[in-house]
Amino acid sequence: MLKKYPILKWTLIVFGSIIILLFVFGWWFISLLPIEEMSIDVSATQTSDLPYLSEDIQPARGKILAIVTSAAIMGSTDKSTGYELTELSRAYYVFVANGFEVDIASPLGGEPPVVIDDDDMGKYDYAFLNDSIAQYKVKHSIPVKDINPERYEAVFFAGGKGAMFDFPENKDIQYIVRHLYQSNKVVGAVCHGPAALVNVTLDTGRSLLENKKVSSFTNDEELLLIPDAETIFPFFLQDKLVEQGARFNEGAMYLENISRDKNLVTGQNPWSTWELAETMIVALGYTPKYRKITAEENAMKVLIAYETGGTKKAKALIKQISAVEKKPLAREFIASHSVIAVMRGNIGRFFSLVNLTSYAKSQSKNI
């Protein structure tokens, strides 16, 4: 039959070859990942296991208010949402480690809905889940209407897509932000958290955001994950911030990026949380306590180096981190960005990032 239909023969050969190549490439791609390290169970981590929290205790410096969303559903859809656990947990522990007591509030009070992404969870995030004090605070969050902002040195708004639905129109949130900002205290927000800044009017009658340098989850980041976002959200956060006069600082997709404009500190996405929280500490007038940088943060530095200087600069940094400084580097994070490149249709970038992942694996032998 194949002799009679040569086109069918060659079609089967080509198709079979493609299948084999994809299988081989897939196997090789998986081999680049640190499967054993990724399989380590850190779910039982306690705060006492983390030197950053258990050693070199800082003196008491006042209180910081963390506010999370109460929205469990995205608008009129059936899509679940809530606050992002990693954004709250990491900021919470930066504040605590630097001597601040943290209260947790939400628009409705009580136990707010939470989003837990297992792929993003690390030691600090699981420690937060195992921390009886932190869990009591988050499960008994204070209604924002009961908050007296004079008790706090700063306010931090965690992200989570729910913030788009119950932060912007909340008069109590607007009052808290306005009072703290005008008192020269610190206002911080990350990812979708800057939705809390929308519609805040100062006593001068001008928008808080007018001519302020800010960052938030971007339109491109939103649309890549939710193609029909325009029909779900009341607005795109990036567009709304710009509409109200902000100078929007857009960094690379899904990489750390923060903006500081005096006592206003904002971050682009969940991966900006560590730096944002520590920048808030700086804005409060203190030098942040030493914290061992995570393997994911080191990988992020590599990706930022790639964005700004290309493959050569990124490889030089990989070698410095792994071979010279002997620090951990989460090459799976680099690999995940190669997948994002495919999702965006950038095949050249995909192969470049796979190449970086392979190089990171070769250099990991030097640690």
Give a verbal description of the structure.
The protein folds into two domains: 47-283, 3-Layer(aba) Sandwich (Rossmann fold); 293-367, no CATH class. Helix content is 46%, strand content 10%. The chain contains 15 helices and eleven strands. The strands form three sheets. Strands 5-3-1-6-7-11-10 form a seven-stranded mixed beta sheet. The protein has a two-stranded parallel sheet with strand order 2-4. Strands 8-9 form a two-stranded parallel ribbon. It starts with 5 loop residues before the first helix and ends with a helix. 41% of the residues are buried.
Blueprint (SSEs and pairs):
Layout: H1 6-31, H2 35-38, H3 51-54, E1 63-67, E2 83-84, H4 85-97, E3 101-106, E4 114-115, H5 123-129, H6 132-139, E5 142-143, E6 154-157, H7 163-166, H8 171-182, E7 186-190, E8 213-214, H9 219-225, H10 229-232, H11 237-243, E9 247-248, E10 258-261, E11 264-267, H12 273-283, H13 295-324, H14 331-343, H15 347-364
Parallel strand pairs: 1-3, 1-6, 2-4, 3-5, 6-7, 7-11, 8-9
Antiparallel strand pairs: 10-11
